[in-house]
Amino acid sequence: MNTPEQAVGLDYPPAEGLAVARVGTSEQAVLVRRGDDVRIDWGYGYLATPAGAGTVVAGGNGGRMRRAFVSNGTAPVPAGPIPASPVSQSRLAMAATWDLGVVGAEPVTRWMMLAYDDVMAIRYFAKDLRAYWRRNGATIESVLVTAAREREQLDRQARAFDEELAQDLTRVGGPSTRRLVRWRIGRRWPRPNWPQTRTVSRCCSRRRTSATGASGPWM
Fold first, then answer.
1. Which residues lie below 8 Å from residue 121, measured CB to CB, with a gap of 6+?
2. Boundaries of domain holding 50
3. Confidence of residue 72 (pLDDT cuts 50, 70, 90)
4. Rounded mean pLDDT of 141-165?
């Protein structure tokens, strides 16, 4: 949304194996707003997590959901779509809760995904064009399903890369270099001072070819 007076609604689109909430403005003026001090107010934000017993994905007034969680340990079970109304009144928010059961010595993990579907990505010579990731008929729901299915494999690959990098750092500079790099990465190591044109090119290429099409930090 651009201002708190805009009407925003929420619903629960179907996606195989996932519990999903979706939020967006009712107006959906795609690629219309321009200028300074403006915020994107078209497209839809998504919260998704694997569906299952004890898992609740819900939307509603943020304050009421927080109080419900403090009192009951879970978010209120959704009763259905929430009609659009000004955010200044509804204070609309999305939340996910999980019942972890009895947690012992073994770690228990749950995760969720945040995504944004811009519907149309760019206006080119007065023609609105969809994002590149949609080229083979993909939808944001199908992309979320794919991301959930491939998560464990990607996680293993990322951990393997981290370990390989750590070994290379130790071999080249010793344990102190390994610790230094890990510390700097944890502190969000600054982006190299690339020329502006190269930075924009990298950003756009990563954004348009991302598997989710619209979520996550862009390097």
1. 129, 130, 131, 132, 208
2. 7-136
3. confident
4. 93
